[in-house]
Write a structure and sequence with these properties.
By secondary structure, the protein is mostly helical. It contains 4 helices and 3 strands, in the order H-E-E-H-H-E-H. It has one domain. It is elongated.
């Protein structure tokens, strides 16, 4: 195993690594919350189903794919894998957001219910978008050099 040298990690690679770390942290924040008078609660990415934890795991996998060459493990088509996985993560988060119940929709409880996407979901969406942007730049840069 080669020694890991922090100085060899590029700024674009830090985008994927940072996105993986931040997505993991954001997964513990509320992704869905509701308030029905005296009852209120929230659910993290790990509780909203595959639409929450799936993208988090994809972004963590992107970080692993980007880090692997720095540990002596070559990953064929790493820029394409990063782009596809982070794009899928972004799409899944958007779909999860769209399919979350919102205030009064399908609840039958009337106007006393306030429900919707939580801060963690919005943060996860931003993190995934930044990872996609970094992946696009990285993918285009690798295609120009080949």
């Amino acid at each position: 195993m080669d020694k890991f040298d922090l100085k060899q990690v590029t700024k674009l690679e830090w985008t994927a690594i940072g996105a993986g770390i931040l997505a993991f942290i954001a997964s513990f924040l509320p992704w869905f919350s509701f308030d029905a008078g005296i009852i209120s609660s929230s659910v993290t990415a790990w509780g909203v189903g595959i639409g929450g934890w799936g993208p988090v795991l994809l972004l963590i996998a992107c970080a692993a794919v980007v880090l692997a060459p720095h540990f002596g493990k070559q990953v064929p088509n790493a820029p394409l894998i990063w782009l596809a996985a982070s794009g899928a993560a972004l799409l899944i988060i958007l779909l999860r957001w769209i399919t979350l119940p919102s205030s009064g929709v399908g609840t039958g409880l009337g106007t006393g219910l306030d429900a919707g996407a939580g801060f963690g979901l919005f943060l996860g969406l931003i993190i995934a978008a930044v990872s996609v942007a970094g992946a696009i730049v990285n993918f285009l840069a690798t295609r120009k050099t080949v």
